[in-house]
Amino acid sequence: MAENRASTNEETYGEGVPCWVDAQLPDVEAGKRFYGELFGWTFQEAYGSAVWALLDGDRVAALAPKTDGRMPTVWTVSFATPDAEALARRLTAAGGRLITDPYPVGDLGTAALATDPGGAVFGLWQPGTHRGFGRRRAPGTFVWAELYTRDTAAANAFYGDLFHDALFGSGAAPDFGRADVTEVFPAEMPPHFIAHFGVADLDDALGTVRRLGGRVQAPPFTASYGRVAVVTDNQGASFALLQR
């Protein structure tokens, strides 16, 4: 493993705050070329065969190879927690499900993968030496997570109970919204999270996505949190571009 250098701007994230995103890809080298050109990221060896994505030296994401070809090619949003085991128990008691029980990732932290009652997949992250994003809410970094679900009332109840302080507590500034699947996607689309990355010019960024072999899944639309387009990279992983 490369030197485990934490970003100087790395924050401490409260429970329920989106704190990290990682992509599981068939070809990490192809992912480095795509995202490096799209967002200006550079890359550094991380854990196992994964790489850190860096923006001006700050960790903003990770790219990892799929360990099984049957796994989806996806971006996964992870939420911070000080105690992954305790949060996992609360999550299952509330009707969610664990895909992977909490497990250590070296000295970096403890991870788990879960679904909400509607089936949308997300991660849990209990920090060790890696607390999460070294930079966010800026062009080329994570800015928002949107859950597309068939039952927004049920999703609001589930996440509102699980992550109450992050969503509704005093001074909360959540980067996490919930919307009906049919607002952007066909009704048959399963519930899922979409990680949003900031761009300075959405139309220019869409041109770059197309030039690099990606495609536009949902053309630009205006949401309460900015102007958005949903795209896929050249390996099929979906994400969104957000201009504010």
From TrEMBL:
Pfam families: Glyoxalase. Gene3D superfamilies: 2,3-Dihydroxybiphenyl 1,2-Dioxygenase, domain 1. Transmembrane segments: none annotated. Residues 17-127 form the VOC domain. It comes from the Bacteria. This is VOC family protein. The lineage of its organism: Bacteria, Bacillati, Actinomycetota, Actinomycetes, Kitasatosporales.
